[in-house]
Amino acid sequence: MSTTPHPTERLLQTVTGPLPARSVPGPALAHEHLVLDLDRKGDGAAVLDAQRHGPAVTRELAALREEFGLGLVIELTCRGMGRDPDTLARIARESGVAVVAATGWYYEPFHPAADLDGAGVEQLTDTLVQEIDAGLDGTGIRPGVLGEVGSHGETPTEPESRSLRAAARAALATGLSVATHAQLGHGGLAQLDLLTAEGLPPERLCIGHQDLLAEPAVHRRLAEAGAYVAFDTVGKESYQSDEVRLRLLLALLEAGHADRVLLSCDISRHGYLLTEGGQGYGHLFRSFLPAVRSAGVDDDLIDLMTRRNPLRFLTGAGPEEF
């Protein structure tokens, strides 16, 4: 399919340049990490290193493109998480899978002191807008989303509130959307209230890790408000069983909110890679979605959740598009 945009074409900002959203041929992974460093214990577990693990990541994505038509990865490694835009661009080129990079701040334990200490919301907003306009870390590679902007607990801490508010303001200034990290699924409603209070339309917001929160009423409230609800830790059985995830997802679908669902695996340590015996980025396609189909969900709804919804989230497109 041609990538020459129509004058009114909605574009994704990927690590290899602008891409017409309609040219994404298949499903997306809505919340992943391809390179990151969250190592706080010194054991190197919460790491995806460019040199040691990058080739395996590339091979996994290329295989998923061939087997399932994987067309897009939304990569939510932001400031303070070991972000590496050049490696993301190389993985995208070598795998043939488009990658959208991110800016923003994770939750407070991972806030870089140089960024957050003493910085007000306006200063933080300026930092984000500059990265969105000029590129990440001096590379010229521009982000296409704000995220995973984080909080932990039922309400954000003061620094988390500043970073979330800055993300909302930067999103409004640049036209990007915001994906959040809600630690273990908690605090999503508070994130929704804070971000929308800054003027961010709920349809430009995705609340993260809701499959870790076994509270269907919260999922419904988020969806009814118009926000996207991320079931994005699929396969992380040590946090939540996929059996429970499936039950929670079916409840949200039965409530009529398939158009608010985003799905992914949130691969965040090298032990999750196939080469190391983990479930890999393809667990969603190889294991979870077959279970969803077996529960009676048809292919149109699966396409909605895995392709159309991610494109609408990133671009702000309406339900009639894609």
From TrEMBL:
Its cofactor is a divalent metal cation. Keywords: Hydrolase, Metal-binding. Pfam families: PTE. This is Phosphotriesterase. It comes from Streptomyces albus. Binds 2 divalent metal cations per subunit. InterPro entries: Metal_Hydrolase, Phosphotriesterase. It comes from the Bacteria. A divalent metal cation 2 binds at E148, H181, H209. A divalent metal cation 1 binds at H31, H33, E148, D266. One of its GO terms (molecular function) is zinc ion binding. Belongs to the metallo-dependent hydrolases superfamily. Phosphotriesterase family.
